[in-house]
């Protein structure tokens, strides 16, 4: 499988870009890796990159986007931060990745058993982590279905907060980046949420 070129990148629609990720995850789950020569891809990308997707995911060591979507060098912009939270630097990176470089889909990818989400649910405070975990609090506030045991020991609560965190992050991208919102309204990009299951390797997209 070859690296994306300017031609293949520009020929993709947002929907086909999403489909490439879905098919990549299916290969990953079936242990059928596409045949790639990474060193050859170093060569192919040496003069430029034409990635098709931008993925915001967690730093969790089990959730590397290139691996779980079976992608190679030059295929995706990978933004990783604990709890896949958003800030203005990450929004700036997304604006670069879409408006300037032309990726077709933004994926906000949460995952099961996320230590950052559990920490936020337990209201952990430690050094600079406190500020980061505070960014997950809106998802906790918006979780209205759990009335008891609203902490990190309640798997259902943690799962709901994880999904809400993805949902609210997507809403914030649209609200806080007029550049990205316009690209989406013009149909030039898609913004999609997803959840990676660390027990099965399966990514479930919201569409
Ligand atoms: Zn995580």
UniProtKB/TrEMBL annotation:
GO function term, MF aspect, one: carbonate dehydratase activity
SMART domains in the record: Pro_CA
Listed cofactors: Zn(2+)
Family matches, as Gene3D superfamilies: Carbonic anhydrase (3.40.1050.10)
Annotated keywords: Metal-binding, Zinc
Keyword Metal-binding: yes
Binding sites annotated in the UniProt record for Zn(2+): 58, 60, 111, 114
Cofactor note (record): Binds 1 zinc ion per subunit.
PANTHER family the UniProt entry points to: CARBONIC ANHYDRASE, CARBONIC ANHYDRASE 2
UniProt similarity note: Belongs to the beta-class carbonic anhydrase family.
Protein known as: Carbonic anhydrase
UniProt source species: Flavobacterium saliperosum
Taxonomic lineage of the native organism: Bacteria, Pseudomonadati, Bacteroidota, Flavobacteriia, Flavobacteriales
